[in-house]
Amino acid sequence: MIEEEDVYKVTIPMEAGVQNEKLEWTKLWDQLGLSKGLSKGLSNEQIGLFFESLMKPVAASKLRVILGYTNATKFKNSYIVPLMEQGLVVMSQPDKPNSPTQKYYLTEKGKRVIGSVGEEATF
Fold it and tell me: Taking the model in full, what pTM does it have?
């Protein structure tokens, strides 16, 4: 039996810029020129989880699942390539762009940009 004095409140800190419900991920998405996803009905939470996942190297297939895409080429051309062109995302194996073990992650610039969500994003 749990007594009232045995109940503890635990606060788990999240990485900067990842408290999805309070952030304007859709606004950032649009500013990055990725508004196509908004017409697809992506939620603020999906977009936040997408960027949170990129904090560490992640396979494109996992990112596709988050955004509900099945077509790998369309997904890469619509989202990964534009983020790479803006210097926000890089490949883990740049010399092997089509490697099945390829992963993507945020650059320092990308981390600064997603850390600015809720403020005025500059990139």
Answer: 0.72
Cα 114 to Cα 52: distance, rounded to the nearest angstrom = 9
CA 58 and chain centroid, separation: 10
Domains of the chain plus CATH, in order, are 42-116 (1.10.10.10)
Cβ–Cβ under 8 Å, residues 104 and 60: yes
Alpha-carbon Rg for the chain in angstroms: 17
User: How many Cα atoms within 13 Å fall on the side-chain side of residue 7?
Assistant: 4
Q: How distant, in Å, are the alpha carbons of 3, 49, 59, 77 from that of 99?
A: 55, 24, 11, 16
100, pLDDT greater than 90 = yes
